[in-house]
Write a structure and sequence with these properties.
alpha+beta, six-stranded mixed sheet, two-stranded antiparallel sheet, 7 helices, 8 strands, 46% helix
């Protein structure tokens, strides 16, 4: 049976009503979303009360348990810093988890070897991407100091950092993304930005104070 997948959100910023019982869903309370507009039911009205919550961390177990479960509720939580919903686990049937665990145990060694090979390939790909990004920086800022392009690219493109170099546009070597990476480096390495914190100034004011200094360095590097 094809799993019926619905999303459960732990909302931090919305006021909602259950589409079945019409009761308000309190801020932060779990609910079952039926669409991208987050219309849905409260948890007590959902079909998930008898299901088991599976935490993330084992991709094979997550994928297989979802495949074998008639219902699958994906839990998302609002990340205040990144301002987006992020996956936190899923609700599936207990029998689906048991079947998935059996399969995972049977091919654990095979998957481990495959994962090691994949990790090596990803590392090589990331190394190549950083090199290409540094070349793109050097082309756009030919007068930046020696090896600074590599330093900027390495920092901006660090894996799992969430920095500008990991965005889709940066991977297309978009000029605006390159500018943002270079500006961030200049802000910390070529101005007194970092030393101004703790002196009673707000972050916005400090950024404003060093804006002209950044522009001057950008002009010089170009």
């Amino acid at each position: 049976m094809q799993p019926l997948t619905q999303n459960i959100f732990l909302t931090k910023k919305e006021t909602l009503k259950c589409s079945k019982c019409q009761r308000n869903i309190a801020l932060g309370q779990a609910y079952v979303a039926e669409s991208e507009k987050h219309k849905g039911t409260c948890f007590s009205c959902s079909p998930f009360s008898s299901l088991i919550f599976l935490k993330p961390g084992n991709a094979a177990l997550t994928r297989r348990s979802k495949k074998y479960s008639a219902y699958c509720g994906v839990v998302f939580e609002w990340n205040r810093r990144r301002k987006r919903f992020e996956r936190r686990g899923q609700y599936v049937e207990a029998s689906a988890i048991a079947k998935a665990e059996k399969e995972c145990a049977a091919d654990a060694e095979k998957r481990m070897l495959a994962n090691k090979k994949a990790a090596i390939l990803r590392a090589e790909h990331d190394k190549g991407y950083i090199q290409e990004f540094s070349v793109a920086i050097r082309k756009r800022y030919p007068n930046c100091p020696r090896n600074r392009d590599v330093e900027i690219a390495t920092h901006a493109c660090e894996k799992y950092s969430g920095r500008v170099g990991r965005t889709a546009k940066a991977k297309e070597f978009d000029a605006a993304m390159i500018d943002l990476a270079v500006e961030a480096h200049i802000r910390h390495a070529e101005t007194n930005y970092d030393s101004q914190f703790g002196k009673g100034k707000a972050k916005r004011q400090i950024r404003s104070d060093v804006k002209q200094d950044i522009k001057a360095v950008l002009y010089k590097w170009r």
